[in-house]
Amino acid sequence: MSRTFAYARVSTTEQETMNQVREIEAAGFKVEAHRIISETVSGSVSAMQRPGFTRLLDKMEQGDVLIVTKLDRLGRDAIDVTSTVNLLEERGIRVHCLALGGTDLTSSSGRLTMQVINAVAQFERDLLIERTQAGLARAKAAGKRMGRPPALSPDQQADVKDRLKAGNAVAAIARDLGVSRQTIMRLRSEA
């Protein structure tokens, strides 16, 4: 007989998982309290590296059902979510996502939904990269300096080079100007 589990996750201690648990109950799923795993961990941490999720995996068996409110509870990016769902499917565990109408992500329609979501996510990433590259190219063409602003003004840089020629120590110059030794050594190598 299949058992139903719920996984609820929040990213910060200021947040609570109770809303997710209530949403699962409101959707008609009856989950016993000891089968609800709640944890506070960033979504950027892979599901397989989360203590609560690995504890959940230890409890679940073939034929069980896992309920999550949204895909982002399983992971932040499509690759992590897909690999987590695939692992659960390999173990014979069905995954239902309430935000997708309760779709079983391990079913044919669920896999199709995941593929569409992955394709859209990849498309959005590609568009972001294209926009970023176009913006950088425009800025360079307009003569804008890229990267971090210099730690020293042009006058200070000239002063440093003069002091280096005069034989002053790198550490002393850096201390006087309140910059790192690496900043002074970079100017020394340019001279």
What does this molecule look like?
The structure is a single chain. This protein is of the alpha/beta class. The chain has two domains: 104 residues, 3-Layer(aba) Sandwich (Rossmann fold); 37 residues. A five-stranded mixed beta sheet has the order 2-1-3-4-5, with helices on both faces. Helix 6 packs across helix 7. The longest helix has 34 residues.
The structure class reads alpha/beta
Kindly report how far apart the N and C termini lie: 77 Å
Proper CATH architecture of the largest domain: 3-Layer(aba) Sandwich
Instruction: Give the proportion of residues in helices.
Output: 40-55%
Classified by CATH, the class of the largest domain is: Alpha Beta
Strand order of the largest sheet: 2-1-3-4-5
* Model regions low in confidence, pLDDT < 50 over at least 5 residues: none
CATH H-level name of the largest domain... which superfamily? Resolvase, N-terminal catalytic domain
Oligomerization category of the chains in this entry: single chain
Tell me the domain tally: 2
Strand content: 5-15%
What general outline do the C-alpha atoms trace? elongated
User: Radius of gyration in whole Å, from Cα?
Assistant: 27 Å
Overall pLDDT = 91
Please outline the major beta sheet.
5 strands, mixed
User: What is the CATH topology classification name of the largest domain?
Assistant: Rossmann fold
Give me the number of helical elements: 7
Strand and helix order:
EHEHEHEEHHHH
